[in-house]
């Protein structure tokens, strides 16, 4: 017996047979067909009986707690009318549905415009504060409004109804719907050095920079221009390798080099992109000159020099030292810099004993700023950074690594779009393992469809000139991936096997690994079928994890989620919060899972507070790089920032220095009042 239905708004209400009868009755009247047949049988009642029969049969195939949606019931009405050979009535009913949908859309559009504006201006819409990089501002309002319109356009006018419904119903999440562009991109700093900034019709063109100060300005403008044409991170690889020859050619002093790097850092932190945001930038630093560049002539001012990149190791060391010093200094108020996000390549010849290493690990132990890319013990290859874009793909089933971790991309590659699969819902609804993988496969097929559609749209717009700087410096999107990710593996296991089965259990680990392999195999099928690049990513799904969990809790109240006050899902195949505070236990549990991804992934080594000795931090990073196949990781110490006293090691909800100062001030005030009172009392006595 059907007791409840899910309305289009997502709200659940009691099932009402009379509403179905009324809608079918209107369709009969609209075409002048009598409701009673020759035998005196009420055809409307018969149709609704058949609908309920079909509905019961459909729900028997689902999870016991599943609730049918209004749209599903209306689809069954159409089926029952056609089965009964009431074709004119079926046409009238379909027209009735279409007309009411148009009315709802018109009403919704007017309501959406008001709600969108009011939600931002009153700061009542959660999306206003979703992105920490966007401040409440006119630029933020413009981005908020245009993003809402763009997202609706994607879902209503571009994606198929099945894809749009899968996103709306939270079966999966299509990222960056608010942007009519690709996701992330890696660029060649070498190309900028060789060709300069420009070459775009009707835009200013600059020749190749002959001095580092000019190159840094060009790099800031380059990243800003490209950020306006992409939704996510923009990356440069081998940053220190490529700029070191400028230091050598101009014989820059430390002071001059510092000013150049300072202008770059402040430039990429200026809110110059759409929505009053700073460009989301990542730079990869080689630390040591890469093997494939050592014997190549260095380029300055677009011309080859009479020395090689391998001759510039000392200048690279100076670049790295001064860059770290600047990141430690922060801005004029001591505030740390958000960008660029630095990724350091840990290679076999990484110098762990240098003065620069001391600085690097002091920064790491204090702030956890850098990310580390493991070229020592993973399957990553440093030369892939520059060879991905020109390598023939002989094996069409080989899933290539995108490189660059979560926030970066190798040169001239990146991602067109990202779709994250809601695994906990699959675990909740699936009856057995076969059903689990059937449901997963169906959603992956829809995700593939959405990504292929997006690639076609972005490619067409690239050719039409909507992304002029991308067209100038990239030429083609053939080396950009279609990215599929997942969220909530831990909660998926709990819903599928029972609350005691987490990703830390033997059974949970085995099933998680099998699921990742199933997803990889399916992506290889897609790649072979389409000729396009696909990858599997541990998507950073912070806001997505809340959106999907919130939808699921509303629809399936007994589904297992993380969180107490607010439901959320654990990111990708990460360990749940507070599972263990032993870094090496966490590494043991995560190693096989992290290495299964071919797109972005990162292991966070969470620490209770800063590591006091830089040597301990160095030894930890070295141990991870040499003993684990984790491809990309970061050290994450816990620290707090007081507006008055700045950096505080560990977690503090109130500043202990401020608190002691306040207590001292209060005590001094009390003492003063007591002295004043005593003086008054003595005066009265006299």
Automatic annotation (TrEMBL):
The record's listing under CDD domains reads: RNR_III
Gene Ontology terms, MF aspect: ATP binding; ribonucleoside-diphosphate reductase activity, thioredoxin disulfide as acceptor; ribonucleoside-triphosphate reductase (thioredoxin) activity
Q: Which GO terms describe its biological process?
A: 2'-deoxyribonucleotide biosynthetic process; DNA replication
Q: Which domain of life is it from?
A: Bacteria
Protein name per UniProt: Anaerobic ribonucleoside-triphosphate reductase
Spell out the PANTHER family in the cross-references: ANAEROBIC RIBONUCLEOSIDE-TRIPHOSPHATE REDUCTASE
Any GO CC annotation of this UniProt entry: anaerobic ribonucleoside-triphosphate reductase complex
The record's section on Gene3D superfamilies has: 3.20.70.20
Q: Which residues form the ATP-cone domain?
A: 3-104
Tell me which species this is from: Gracilinema caldarium (strain ATCC 51460 / DSM 7334 / H1) (Treponema caldarium)
- Which is a Pfam family this sequence falls into? NRDD
The alphabetized UniProt keywords are: ATP-binding, Nucleotide-binding
**Database matches in InterPro entries:** ATP-cone_dom (IPR005144), NrdD (IPR012833)
């Amino acid at each position: 017996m059907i007791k409840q239905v899910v309305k289009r708004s997502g709200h659940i209400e009691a099932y009402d047979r009379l509403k179905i009868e009324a809608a079918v009755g209107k369709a009969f009247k609209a075409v002048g067909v009598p409701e009673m047949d020759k035998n005196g049988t009420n055809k409307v009642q018969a149709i609704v009986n058949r609908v309920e029969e079909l509905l019961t049969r459909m729900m028997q195939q689902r999870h016991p707690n599943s609730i049918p949606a209004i749209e599903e019931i209306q689809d069954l009405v159409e089926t029952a009318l056609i089965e009964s050979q009431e074709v004119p009535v079926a046409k009238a009913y379909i027209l009735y549905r279409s007309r009411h949908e148009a009315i709802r859309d018109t009403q919704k559009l007017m309501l959406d415009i008001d709600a969108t504006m009011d939600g931002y201006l009153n700061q009542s819409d959660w999306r206003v504060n979703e992105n920490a990089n966007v401040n409440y501002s006119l630029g933020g309002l413009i981005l908020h409004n245009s993003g809402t319109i763009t997202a609706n356009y994607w879902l209503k006018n571009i994606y198929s109804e099945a894809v749009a419904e899968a996103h709306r119903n939270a079966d999966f999440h299509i990222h960056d719907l608010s942007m009519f562009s690709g996701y992330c991109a890696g660029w060649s700093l070498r190309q900028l050095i060789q060709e300069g900034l420009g070459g775009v019709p009707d835009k200013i063109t600059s020749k190749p920079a002959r001095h580092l100060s000019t190159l840094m300005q060009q790099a800031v403008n380059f990243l800003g221009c490209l950020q306006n044409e992409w939704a996510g991170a923009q990356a440069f690889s081998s940053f220190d390798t490529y700029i070191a020859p400028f230091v050598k050619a101009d014989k820059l002093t430390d002071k001059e080099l510092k000013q150049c790097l300072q202008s770059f850092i402040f430039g990429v932190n200026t809110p110059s992109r759409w929505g009053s945001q700073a460009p989301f930038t990542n730079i990869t630093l080689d630390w040591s000159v890469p093997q494939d560049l050592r014997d190549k002539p260095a380029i300055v001012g677009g011309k080859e020099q009479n020395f090689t990149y391998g001759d510039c190791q000392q200048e690279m060391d100076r670049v790295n030292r001064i860059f770290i010093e600047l990141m430690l200094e922060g801005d004029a108020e001591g505030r740390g810099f958000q960008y660029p996000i630095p990724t350091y390549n840990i290679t076999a010849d990484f110098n762990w004993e240098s003065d620069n290493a001391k600085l690097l690990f002091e920064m790491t132990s204090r702030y956890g700023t850098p990310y580390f890319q493991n070229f020592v013990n993973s399957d990553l290859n440093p030369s892939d950074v520059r060879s991905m874009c020109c390598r023939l793909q002989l094996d069409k089933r080989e899933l290539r690594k995108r490189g660059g971790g979560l926030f970066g991309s190798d040169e001239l590659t990146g991602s067109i779009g990202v779709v994250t699969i809601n695994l906990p819902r699959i675990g909740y609804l699936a009856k057995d393992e076969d059903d689990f993988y059937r449901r997963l496969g169906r959603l992956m097929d829809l995700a593939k469809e959405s990504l292929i559609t997006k690639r076609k749209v972005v490619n067409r717009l690239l050719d039409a000139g909507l992304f002029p700087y991308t067209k100038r410096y990239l030429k083609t999107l053939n080396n950009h991936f279609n990215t599929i990710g997942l969220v909530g593996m831990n909660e998926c296991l709990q819903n599928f096997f029972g609350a005691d089965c987490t990703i830390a259990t033997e059974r949970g680990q085995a099933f998680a690994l099998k699921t990742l392999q199933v997803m990889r195999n399916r992506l290889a099928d897609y790649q072979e079928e389409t000729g396009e690049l696909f990858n599997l990513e541990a998507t950073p799904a912070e806001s997505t994890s809340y959106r999907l969990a919130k939808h699921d809790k509303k629809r399936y109240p007994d589904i297992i989620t993380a969180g107490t006050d607010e439901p959320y899902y654990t990111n990708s195949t990460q360990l749940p919060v507070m599972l263990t505070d032993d870094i090496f236990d966490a590494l043991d549990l995560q190693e096989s899972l992290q290495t299964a991804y071919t797109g972005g992934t990162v292991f966070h080594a969470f620490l209770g507070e800063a590591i006091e000795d830089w040597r301990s931090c160095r030894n930890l990073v070295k141990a991870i790089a040499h003993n684990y196949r984790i491809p990309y990781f970061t050290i994450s110490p816990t620290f707090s920032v007081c507006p008055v006293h700045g950096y505080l090691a560990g977690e503090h909800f109130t500043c202990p220095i401020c608190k002691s100062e306040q207590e001292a001030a209060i005590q001094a005030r009390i003492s003063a009042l007591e002295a004043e009172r005593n003086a008054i009392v003595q005066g009265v006595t006299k």
